[in-house]
Design goal:
367 residues; alpha+beta; Endonuclease III, domain 1; Nucleoside Triphosphate Pyrophosphohydrolase; 8 strands; 13% strand
Protein backbone atom coordinates (compact mmCIF):
# COMPACT_ATOMS: atom_id res chain seq x y z
CA UNK A 1 0.00 0.00 0.00
CA UNK A 2 1.28 3.44 -0.97
CA UNK A 3 1.24 5.98 1.86
CA UNK A 4 1.20 9.70 1.18
CA UNK A 5 4.24 11.67 2.36
CA UNK A 6 2.34 14.94 2.10
CA UNK A 7 2.05 16.79 5.40
CA UNK A 8 -0.95 18.91 6.29
CA UNK A 9 1.20 22.03 6.35
CA UNK A 10 2.60 21.36 2.87
CA UNK A 11 -0.86 20.57 1.54
CA UNK A 12 -2.21 23.92 2.72
CA UNK A 13 0.82 25.81 1.45
CA UNK A 14 0.65 24.29 -2.03
CA UNK A 15 -3.12 24.65 -2.27
CA UNK A 16 -3.14 28.32 -1.28
CA UNK A 17 -0.27 29.09 -3.67
CA UNK A 18 -2.23 27.42 -6.50
CA UNK A 19 -5.35 29.40 -5.60
CA UNK A 20 -3.49 32.70 -5.66
CA UNK A 21 -2.79 32.11 -9.36
CA UNK A 22 -5.89 30.20 -10.48
CA UNK A 23 -8.88 31.44 -8.48
CA UNK A 24 -12.01 32.10 -10.49
CA UNK A 25 -13.31 35.65 -10.67
CA UNK A 26 -16.80 35.12 -9.28
CA UNK A 27 -18.99 37.86 -7.77
CA UNK A 28 -19.49 36.10 -4.43
CA UNK A 29 -15.71 35.85 -4.02
CA UNK A 30 -15.43 39.61 -3.51
CA UNK A 31 -17.83 39.92 -0.58
CA UNK A 32 -18.21 38.88 3.02
CA UNK A 33 -21.97 39.39 2.87
CA UNK A 34 -23.39 36.10 4.22
CA UNK A 35 -26.57 36.60 2.15
CA UNK A 36 -24.66 36.61 -1.14
CA UNK A 37 -22.42 33.73 -0.07
CA UNK A 38 -25.48 31.72 1.04
CA UNK A 39 -27.35 32.44 -2.19
CA UNK A 40 -24.40 31.36 -4.32
CA UNK A 41 -23.98 28.11 -2.38
CA UNK A 42 -27.67 27.19 -2.67
CA UNK A 43 -27.73 27.91 -6.40
CA UNK A 44 -24.51 26.01 -7.06
CA UNK A 45 -25.55 22.85 -5.26
CA UNK A 46 -25.53 20.30 -8.10
CA UNK A 47 -25.36 23.17 -10.62
CA UNK A 48 -22.34 24.18 -12.73
CA UNK A 49 -21.04 27.71 -12.28
CA UNK A 50 -21.69 28.57 -15.94
CA UNK A 51 -25.35 27.66 -15.49
CA UNK A 52 -25.77 29.09 -11.99
CA UNK A 53 -24.05 32.47 -12.44
CA UNK A 54 -26.88 34.08 -14.48
CA UNK A 55 -29.40 32.93 -11.85
CA UNK A 56 -27.26 34.40 -9.08
CA UNK A 57 -27.04 37.72 -10.89
CA UNK A 58 -30.81 37.81 -11.51
CA UNK A 59 -31.57 37.00 -7.87
CA UNK A 60 -29.20 39.69 -6.58
CA UNK A 61 -30.67 42.23 -9.02
CA UNK A 62 -34.24 41.49 -7.94
CA UNK A 63 -33.60 40.63 -4.29
CA UNK A 64 -30.42 42.49 -3.20
CA UNK A 65 -30.88 41.57 0.46
CA UNK A 66 -32.32 38.79 2.57
CA UNK A 67 -35.11 41.18 3.57
CA UNK A 68 -36.05 41.73 -0.07
CA UNK A 69 -36.09 37.97 -0.69
CA UNK A 70 -38.25 37.40 2.38
CA UNK A 71 -40.78 39.93 1.09
CA UNK A 72 -41.28 38.06 -2.20
CA UNK A 73 -44.01 35.50 -2.78
CA UNK A 74 -43.15 31.85 -3.19
CA UNK A 75 -44.48 31.93 -6.74
CA UNK A 76 -42.14 34.81 -7.64
CA UNK A 77 -39.16 32.95 -6.20
CA UNK A 78 -40.06 29.73 -8.02
CA UNK A 79 -40.50 31.59 -11.30
CA UNK A 80 -37.04 33.17 -10.98
CA UNK A 81 -35.58 29.77 -10.05
CA UNK A 82 -37.25 28.06 -13.02
CA UNK A 83 -34.81 25.92 -14.99
CA UNK A 84 -32.41 25.13 -12.15
CA UNK A 85 -34.39 22.13 -10.91
CA UNK A 86 -34.40 20.86 -7.33
CA UNK A 87 -37.24 23.25 -6.54
CA UNK A 88 -37.25 22.35 -2.86
CA UNK A 89 -34.05 24.41 -2.67
CA UNK A 90 -35.96 27.48 -3.86
CA UNK A 91 -38.78 26.90 -1.39
CA UNK A 92 -36.29 26.40 1.45
CA UNK A 93 -34.37 29.48 0.33
CA UNK A 94 -37.52 31.58 0.59
CA UNK A 95 -38.59 30.07 3.92
CA UNK A 96 -35.10 30.53 5.38
CA UNK A 97 -35.02 34.20 4.34
CA UNK A 98 -38.34 34.76 6.09
CA UNK A 99 -37.01 33.04 9.23
CA UNK A 100 -33.86 35.19 9.26
CA UNK A 101 -35.97 38.35 8.99
CA UNK A 102 -38.59 37.25 11.53
CA UNK A 103 -36.33 35.65 14.13
CA UNK A 104 -32.93 37.28 13.61
CA UNK A 105 -33.89 40.83 12.59
CA UNK A 106 -32.53 40.25 9.08
CA UNK A 107 -29.03 39.26 10.25
CA UNK A 108 -27.47 35.86 9.60
CA UNK A 109 -26.28 33.85 12.59
CA UNK A 110 -22.50 34.04 12.73
CA UNK A 111 -21.58 30.50 13.77
CA UNK A 112 -21.76 27.10 12.09
CA UNK A 113 -23.96 25.61 14.82
CA UNK A 114 -26.45 28.50 14.71
CA UNK A 115 -26.61 28.42 10.91
CA UNK A 116 -27.39 24.69 11.02
CA UNK A 117 -30.56 25.48 12.95
CA UNK A 118 -32.06 27.20 9.88
CA UNK A 119 -34.24 25.11 7.60
CA UNK A 120 -32.59 24.42 4.25
CA UNK A 121 -29.04 25.09 5.45
CA UNK A 122 -27.21 21.79 5.67
CA UNK A 123 -23.74 20.99 7.05
CA UNK A 124 -21.84 22.00 3.91
CA UNK A 125 -23.68 25.29 3.33
CA UNK A 126 -23.46 26.25 7.01
CA UNK A 127 -19.72 25.56 6.99
CA UNK A 128 -19.19 27.52 3.79
CA UNK A 129 -21.00 30.57 5.18
CA UNK A 130 -19.29 30.32 8.56
CA UNK A 131 -15.81 29.94 7.05
CA UNK A 132 -16.06 32.48 4.23
CA UNK A 133 -18.24 35.17 5.83
CA UNK A 134 -17.16 34.85 9.46
CA UNK A 135 -13.75 33.09 9.25
CA UNK A 136 -14.78 30.24 11.53
CA UNK A 137 -12.34 27.34 11.43
CA UNK A 138 -14.69 24.73 10.03
CA UNK A 139 -14.47 22.38 7.04
CA UNK A 140 -16.94 22.84 4.19
CA UNK A 141 -17.02 19.36 2.67
CA UNK A 142 -18.83 18.48 -0.55
CA UNK A 143 -18.18 16.25 -3.57
CA UNK A 144 -15.25 18.39 -4.69
CA UNK A 145 -13.51 17.99 -1.34
CA UNK A 146 -14.25 14.25 -1.17
CA UNK A 147 -12.61 13.82 -4.56
CA UNK A 148 -9.54 15.97 -3.91
CA UNK A 149 -8.71 14.48 -0.53
CA UNK A 150 -9.47 10.88 -1.49
CA UNK A 151 -7.21 11.05 -4.54
CA UNK A 152 -4.29 12.97 -3.06
CA UNK A 153 -4.13 11.14 0.27
CA UNK A 154 -5.39 7.77 -1.03
CA UNK A 155 -8.39 7.74 1.32
CA UNK A 156 -10.73 4.79 0.86
CA UNK A 157 -13.56 5.97 3.10
CA UNK A 158 -16.85 5.07 1.43
CA UNK A 159 -18.57 8.43 0.94
CA UNK A 160 -21.71 6.58 -0.06
CA UNK A 161 -22.20 5.76 3.62
CA UNK A 162 -22.78 8.02 6.61
CA UNK A 163 -19.75 6.52 8.38
CA UNK A 164 -17.51 7.17 5.39
CA UNK A 165 -18.68 10.76 5.10
CA UNK A 166 -18.08 11.27 8.81
CA UNK A 167 -14.52 9.93 8.48
CA UNK A 168 -13.87 12.13 5.46
CA UNK A 169 -15.19 15.17 7.32
CA UNK A 170 -12.93 14.46 10.30
CA UNK A 171 -9.93 14.25 8.00
CA UNK A 172 -10.92 17.44 6.15
CA UNK A 173 -11.24 19.31 9.43
CA UNK A 174 -7.58 18.61 10.24
CA UNK A 175 -6.51 20.37 7.04
CA UNK A 176 -8.36 23.68 7.43
CA UNK A 177 -6.05 26.68 7.61
CA UNK A 178 -6.64 28.33 11.01
CA UNK A 179 -5.40 31.74 9.89
CA UNK A 180 -7.42 31.99 6.69
CA UNK A 181 -10.23 29.41 6.67
CA UNK A 182 -12.16 31.61 4.24
CA UNK A 183 -9.48 31.51 1.55
CA UNK A 184 -8.72 27.86 2.19
CA UNK A 185 -12.38 26.84 1.75
CA UNK A 186 -12.64 28.63 -1.58
CA UNK A 187 -9.26 27.29 -2.71
CA UNK A 188 -10.13 23.63 -2.25
CA UNK A 189 -13.48 24.14 -4.01
CA UNK A 190 -11.79 25.73 -7.02
CA UNK A 191 -9.09 23.07 -7.09
CA UNK A 192 -11.71 20.34 -7.31
CA UNK A 193 -13.68 22.25 -9.96
CA UNK A 194 -10.74 23.24 -12.16
CA UNK A 195 -7.83 20.85 -11.58
CA UNK A 196 -8.94 17.64 -9.89
CA UNK A 197 -12.08 17.22 -11.98
CA UNK A 198 -14.29 14.11 -11.82
CA UNK A 199 -13.69 12.59 -15.27
CA UNK A 200 -10.46 14.04 -16.64
CA UNK A 201 -8.25 15.45 -13.87
CA UNK A 202 -5.29 17.56 -15.05
CA UNK A 203 -2.68 15.33 -13.42
CA UNK A 204 0.22 16.39 -15.66
CA UNK A 205 0.14 19.98 -14.38
CA UNK A 206 -1.03 19.24 -10.84
CA UNK A 207 0.90 20.80 -7.95
CA UNK A 208 0.34 17.59 -5.97
CA UNK A 209 1.64 15.26 -8.70
CA UNK A 210 4.66 14.24 -6.60
CA UNK A 211 2.45 13.36 -3.63
CA UNK A 212 -0.88 12.13 -5.08
CA UNK A 213 -1.63 8.48 -4.26
CA UNK A 214 -4.28 8.19 -6.98
CA UNK A 215 -1.80 9.43 -9.59
CA UNK A 216 0.92 6.98 -8.56
CA UNK A 217 -1.47 4.01 -8.35
CA UNK A 218 -3.62 4.98 -11.35
CA UNK A 219 -6.80 5.11 -9.23
CA UNK A 220 -8.20 8.49 -10.31
CA UNK A 221 -11.32 6.75 -11.62
CA UNK A 222 -12.04 4.75 -8.46
CA UNK A 223 -11.41 7.41 -5.81
CA UNK A 224 -13.36 8.53 -3.94
CA UNK A 225 -15.09 5.26 -3.12
CA UNK A 226 -18.87 5.50 -3.36
CA UNK A 227 -20.77 2.25 -2.99
CA UNK A 228 -24.41 3.22 -3.32
CA UNK A 229 -25.65 3.73 -6.86
CA UNK A 230 -28.85 5.56 -7.68
CA UNK A 231 -31.57 3.39 -9.17
CA UNK A 232 -33.88 5.63 -11.13
CA UNK A 233 -37.59 4.95 -10.90
CA UNK A 234 -39.35 5.05 -14.29
CA UNK A 235 -42.63 6.98 -14.48
CA UNK A 236 -44.94 7.30 -17.50
CA UNK A 237 -46.63 10.68 -17.91
CA UNK A 238 -49.38 11.65 -20.33
CA UNK A 239 -50.01 15.40 -20.35
CA UNK A 240 -53.23 16.74 -21.86
CA UNK A 241 -53.13 20.32 -23.09
CA UNK A 242 -56.72 21.53 -22.88
CA UNK A 243 -57.23 24.71 -24.91
CA UNK A 244 -60.24 26.93 -25.51
CA UNK A 245 -59.81 29.88 -27.80
CA UNK A 246 -56.71 31.77 -26.66
CA UNK A 247 -56.44 30.16 -23.22
CA UNK A 248 -54.93 26.98 -21.90
CA UNK A 249 -55.89 25.13 -18.73
CA UNK A 250 -53.17 24.48 -16.17
CA UNK A 251 -53.02 23.44 -12.54
CA UNK A 252 -50.83 24.22 -9.58
CA UNK A 253 -49.15 21.20 -8.03
CA UNK A 254 -49.87 21.15 -4.31
CA UNK A 255 -48.61 17.71 -3.31
CA UNK A 256 -45.30 17.53 -1.45
CA UNK A 257 -43.10 16.56 -4.36
CA UNK A 258 -40.21 18.20 -6.19
CA UNK A 259 -42.58 20.33 -8.31
CA UNK A 260 -44.74 21.60 -5.46
CA UNK A 261 -45.92 25.13 -6.22
CA UNK A 262 -45.20 24.77 -9.95
CA UNK A 263 -47.77 24.73 -12.77
CA UNK A 264 -48.27 22.00 -15.34
CA UNK A 265 -51.01 20.54 -17.57
CA UNK A 266 -53.64 17.94 -16.79
CA UNK A 267 -51.67 14.78 -16.06
CA UNK A 268 -52.37 11.07 -16.17
CA UNK A 269 -49.65 8.87 -14.72
CA UNK A 270 -49.48 5.10 -15.23
CA UNK A 271 -47.12 2.23 -14.55
CA UNK A 272 -46.70 1.73 -18.28
CA UNK A 273 -47.47 3.58 -21.49
CA UNK A 274 -51.18 3.33 -22.30
CA UNK A 275 -52.97 3.75 -25.60
CA UNK A 276 -54.84 7.06 -25.46
CA UNK A 277 -58.31 5.75 -26.31
CA UNK A 278 -57.97 3.11 -23.60
CA UNK A 279 -57.52 5.58 -20.78
CA UNK A 280 -60.25 5.29 -18.16
CA UNK A 281 -60.30 8.86 -16.90
CA UNK A 282 -63.44 10.98 -16.28
CA UNK A 283 -62.17 14.08 -18.06
CA UNK A 284 -60.84 12.13 -21.02
CA UNK A 285 -64.02 10.03 -21.24
CA UNK A 286 -66.07 13.22 -21.29
CA UNK A 287 -63.91 14.51 -24.14
CA UNK A 288 -64.64 11.30 -26.03
CA UNK A 289 -68.36 11.72 -25.37
CA UNK A 290 -68.18 15.15 -27.03
CA UNK A 291 -66.17 13.65 -29.91
CA UNK A 292 -63.25 15.97 -29.29
CA UNK A 293 -60.18 14.97 -31.34
CA UNK A 294 -56.95 14.28 -29.47
CA UNK A 295 -53.76 15.36 -31.20
CA UNK A 296 -50.75 13.44 -29.86
CA UNK A 297 -47.27 14.84 -30.30
CA UNK A 298 -45.37 11.84 -31.55
CA UNK A 299 -42.03 12.34 -29.81
CA UNK A 300 -41.76 10.90 -26.33
CA UNK A 301 -39.85 13.30 -24.09
CA UNK A 302 -37.37 11.89 -21.61
CA UNK A 303 -36.74 13.93 -18.49
CA UNK A 304 -34.12 12.84 -15.96
CA UNK A 305 -34.37 13.70 -12.29
CA UNK A 306 -32.04 12.62 -9.50
CA UNK A 307 -33.96 9.46 -8.61
CA UNK A 308 -36.43 9.27 -11.47
CA UNK A 309 -36.72 9.03 -15.24
CA UNK A 310 -39.90 10.50 -16.71
CA UNK A 311 -41.16 9.23 -20.06
CA UNK A 312 -43.58 11.89 -21.21
CA UNK A 313 -46.12 12.19 -24.01
CA UNK A 314 -48.04 15.38 -24.76
CA UNK A 315 -51.57 15.46 -26.18
CA UNK A 316 -53.65 18.45 -27.23
CA UNK A 317 -57.46 18.70 -26.96
CA UNK A 318 -59.35 21.72 -28.23
CA UNK A 319 -62.45 21.87 -26.04
CA UNK A 320 -65.85 23.35 -26.84
CA UNK A 321 -68.23 25.49 -24.81
CA UNK A 322 -70.61 22.50 -24.48
CA UNK A 323 -67.76 20.40 -23.06
CA UNK A 324 -66.77 23.15 -20.64
CA UNK A 325 -70.29 23.46 -19.28
CA UNK A 326 -70.47 19.77 -18.55
CA UNK A 327 -66.86 19.52 -17.34
CA UNK A 328 -66.99 22.51 -14.99
CA UNK A 329 -67.20 20.38 -11.84
CA UNK A 330 -64.29 18.22 -13.05
CA UNK A 331 -62.16 21.27 -13.75
CA UNK A 332 -62.85 22.45 -10.19
CA UNK A 333 -62.10 18.99 -8.83
CA UNK A 334 -58.75 18.85 -10.62
CA UNK A 335 -57.94 22.54 -9.92
CA UNK A 336 -57.67 23.38 -13.62
CA UNK A 337 -57.63 27.12 -14.29
CA UNK A 338 -57.54 28.98 -17.60
CA UNK A 339 -54.53 31.21 -18.40
CA UNK A 340 -53.72 33.25 -21.46
CA UNK A 341 -50.30 33.41 -23.08
CA UNK A 342 -49.02 36.36 -21.03
CA UNK A 343 -50.24 34.88 -17.76
CA UNK A 344 -48.56 31.54 -18.46
CA UNK A 345 -45.24 33.32 -18.96
CA UNK A 346 -45.36 34.57 -15.36
CA UNK A 347 -46.16 31.16 -13.85
CA UNK A 348 -43.40 29.00 -12.36
CA UNK A 349 -43.23 25.83 -14.43
CA UNK A 350 -41.07 22.68 -14.40
CA UNK A 351 -38.40 22.99 -17.08
CA UNK A 352 -40.05 20.02 -18.81
CA UNK A 353 -43.19 22.11 -19.35
CA UNK A 354 -41.27 25.29 -20.18
CA UNK A 355 -39.17 23.49 -22.80
CA UNK A 356 -42.26 21.96 -24.37
CA UNK A 357 -43.86 25.38 -24.74
CA UNK A 358 -40.67 26.75 -26.25
CA UNK A 359 -40.53 23.96 -28.80
CA UNK A 360 -43.98 25.00 -29.98
CA UNK A 361 -42.61 28.34 -31.22
CA UNK A 362 -43.57 30.67 -28.47
CA UNK A 363 -46.71 28.85 -27.36
CA UNK A 364 -48.14 28.06 -30.81
CA UNK A 365 -50.16 25.48 -28.86
CA UNK A 366 -52.79 28.23 -28.76
CA UNK A 367 -53.08 28.31 -32.54
Amino acid sequence: MVISTLTHVTFRKLLLAWYASHQRSLPWRFTKDPYKIWLSEIILQQTRVAQGLPYYERFIAKYPSVTALASATEQEVLRLWQGLGYYSRARNLHHCAQTIVAQHNGFFPTSYQALRMLKGIGPYTAAAIAAVAFKEVVAAVDGNVYRVLARIFGLTYDVGTSQGRKQMHQFATLLVDHLQPDTYSQAIMDFGALQCTPASPCCATCIFKNYCIAFYTDRQKVLPVKSNKLHKRIRYFDYFILTYGDVIYMKKRIKSDIWKGMYDFYLLENEQRLVVNQMNDPLFCLAQKHHLPVVTFEKEERHLLTHQKLLVKFHKIEVTSAFLQEANHLFNQFSLVSFNRAEIETLPKPILIQNFLKKLNDCTVFE
